[in-house]
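Thread: Ulp1 protease family, C-terminal catalytic domain containing protein, structure

OP (GT): Posting the sequence first so everyone is looking at the same thing. Length is 401 residues per the record. Can we get the structure tokens written out before standup tomorrow? I want them in the notebook alongside the other entries.
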Amino acid sequence: MEQPSPTKTAEAAENTAETAELHASHSSSETAVDESNLKSVRSSISSRGDTDLHTKDHQHDDDILDHMSKLSVGAYDAVKTALMIADECRRKCERLEEKLRSLDSYKFDNIAEPLPKPGEPAYDIWDLKTRTAEHCEGLDYFAVLFQNDAPKRWLNYDKLGNASDAIKLVRQGDSSRVLVERFGIKMTPNHLSCLDGPNWLNDEVINFFIGMVQERNDFLIEQSVEKVPKCFCFNTFFFNMLSGGDDPKTNYNYRAVSRWTTRRKVDVFAVDILLIPVHAYKAHWCLGVVDMRPASRRILLFDSLRGSHRMFFKNIRRWLQDEHMDKKGEPLSDINEWKYNPTCETERLAPRQQNGHDCGMFLCLYAECISIGKRFDFSQRDISMRRVKMVQQILRGSIFK
């Protein structure tokens, strides 16, 4: 659901404040409002043609009129302004109801609380609550996503050797020489240099690390390790292509990725978790997660800057439907079982970055933890060390061997 603008919503409050100042500036005149003027204002409001206004709204107008008739003001326009504020609030409420009815992310009839009317408590539209409020309250789905409480981490930190030797390989010699080749990626010092200091990560480093995450997950699933979800990791190009790539005329193109899972021989509806790197606005890395398990279906986005990415949720829902039709030959009838935050905000419990260059690192570490069902065990203060460890793991070609 699109967040209402606090600036626009506060318009009524600001106008009311201006009206109060007008009252104060004319208090010495003690000019009583002519009752015939009040009646004419009431008539102008009630005759604007809205036949569906609620009786309670009219009563609210009457209450305002009664209150204003007791005030001493120096200008008839002050009363008229106050009434127009009430009328604008009522029309704003009607527009909000109409917008809610038009949304397809949830059914209007399932809103947890009725919409308050002008004059009622909580008539601030940004305070309205829907049936999806549990997304920000209970967070029970986190218990499912991070259910692995085993002490083992399946990381090879104790086998990586001397960190300074690994950094020397990155800093010295021919920057174009191939240091390691895996997952279809030839890793060079030039690629790895993004890990040496405060830099944005490139596609090669992220995709290589994601490849190692996938390899470890495949191994643990083969070993039937308890509470490790079966994952499928997409690379950094998938969501970009799904969202139209460099074509400015479209933001969704299923045909561009329709053979993606076929080539990789994976049925996404038979795995537990999908991990999807997202290059938001081509300037910021975050991690999309789709829980495919029937009992806990959900679409999530982990963003170390906690932004809002409406296109991700919209495109992934649409992709799930297109993928099911393309691979199964029939419509996906239960798309609404995949819950998500209707405000399209990202997960607030994700560790946050404290600078402008570590988003790629957070993406990789989110994926590493989620792929084994482990709660996040890192923060910004760990990132410098994790950069060095990532160089070592890439040179070794594994995060667990």
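GT: Both are above now. Quick notes for whoever picks this up: Confidence is low (pLDDT under 50) at residues 1-35, 45-54, 104-115, 122-138. The first helix runs from residue 6 to 9.
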